[in-house]
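Ticket #4471: structure export looks truncated?
Reporter: QA, pipeline team
Priority: medium

Steps to reproduce: submit the single chain below to the structure queue and open the exported record.
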Amino acid sequence: MPAQPSRNSPADGLRADARHNRARILQAARAAYAAHGIDVPVTTIARRAGVGVATLYRRFPTRDALVAEAFTEQFQACAAVLDEALADPDPWRGFRSLVEKVCAMQARDRGFTAAFLARFPGLLDPGGERERAEEKLALLVRRAQEAGVLRPDFDASDVVLVLLANNGLAGADLDVGSSHPGAGVGPKGWAVRPLKRYASWV
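Actual output as written to the record:
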């Protein structure tokens, strides 16, 4: 008869020290990605976490796996924002709120953009989540177009262009006294500027 796991064993099968190392690695990765983007070397993350590179790879066999885990909360937040936008009875307000909220996430975390835009294809598609998100986004766009508030030539993939435009502003060091056109404008304002060109009523 096979040995039964101890009732005191953790559900994930990891020892306390292994769980602690995993948590430290994720904390270090999130801080590094937020400050410098997702191109931070794995060796830097391991050093910040106070573990060896071999330990990091035991917990996260690939860099993609580490990035995916580090951004799990953000992806879940995006899914919630998308659902909220679809639930809004006003098609334009729902569409605009989605873009504004995602752009605000960009402003807070420099690594989020690359992850959100699926630079690592597996990030957004565990269990078909990415496909469902794309279908919901297409529905959100179609609702706004049918209401006559979004240009008929706008495609759901154009949201990527809006995010890239916003990312350029979010990544700049802007202040109120700057001559940059985005100076003194918060994340919502950054998002609205590239978004307005797609509104049918502008």
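Status: closed, not a bug. The export was complete when the record was re-opened. Leaving a note from the reviewer for reference: The CA atoms of residues 176 and 185 lie 8 Å apart.
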